[in-house]
Amino acid sequence: MVWEHITISLNSVAIAIIIAVPLGILSTRSKTLYRVAKGLFGTLRIVPSLAILVLFIPIMGTGWKPAVVALSILAIPPILMNTALAFHTLPEAVLETALGMGMGKYRTFFTVKLPLAFPLIFTGIRTAVVEVIASATLAAYIGAGGLGSLIFTGLGLMRTDLLIIGGFSVGALSLLSGYLLTLLDRRLTLYKV
């Protein structure tokens, strides 16, 4: 069950990263696109996780696939918003210096913009991971398995021990993933003061 929970969460976050990071970068090129992306995905943040999971039942049925799609949608907003914010708040003086040094568009992007934006993008990914691990508990409701199965079984059988084990496991998994990603962030951004 733990491995199922981790697999669902990792797949969801991976899909969200593939969609949200390029979309976040793209949205910085047009104010209209930025406003649309911010409005649309900002709205998604206030929709309850269970509502998004249940919405996919008529379209995709039940099981692992709709759970991953729904959780990916839940993971997109924090990654997209942080990516867009990171690229919007890049210091102009640094970008002008890079251009003044003769750096081309692509070299400026990969050697200046992306490294400067990375810490904020990673913060969005860390937030998404913790949110998805917590929300993946509800995925058991649509037959996707994971630690939520333990909790729903405990609810059905009125067994407190199963509820405590399931709840504690999800909480511990969320805290552990947050801690490990914080360590990774510190390792990757050693240059940060």
Write the layout of secondary structure elements.
Blueprint: H1 2-27, H2 31-44, H3 49-55, H4 57-60, H5 64-88, H6 92-100, H7 105-135, H8 147-157, H9 160-188
Q: Could you walk me through the main structural features you see in this protein, from its secondary elements to its overall organization?
A:
With 193 residues, the protein is mostly helical. The protein has nine helices and no strands. It has helices spanning 2-27, 31-44, 49-55, 57-60, 64-88, 92-100, 105-135, 147-157, 160-188. The mean pLDDT is 85. This is ABC transporter permease. It comes from Anoxybacterium hadale.
Please report the number of helical segments. Answer: 9
| SS strand fraction | under 5%
- Helix-strand string: HHHHHHHHH
Spans of at least 5 consecutive residues whose pLDDT stays below 50 are none
> What is the share of helical residues?
over 70%
Terminal-residue CA separation: 40 Å
* Mean pLDDT figure: 85
Structural class: mainly alpha
Radius of gyration: 19 Å
* Count of individual beta strands: 0
Oligomer: single chain
Main pleated-sheet profile: none
Mass-distribution shape: elongated
Organism: Anoxybacterium hadale
Protein name: ABC transporter permease
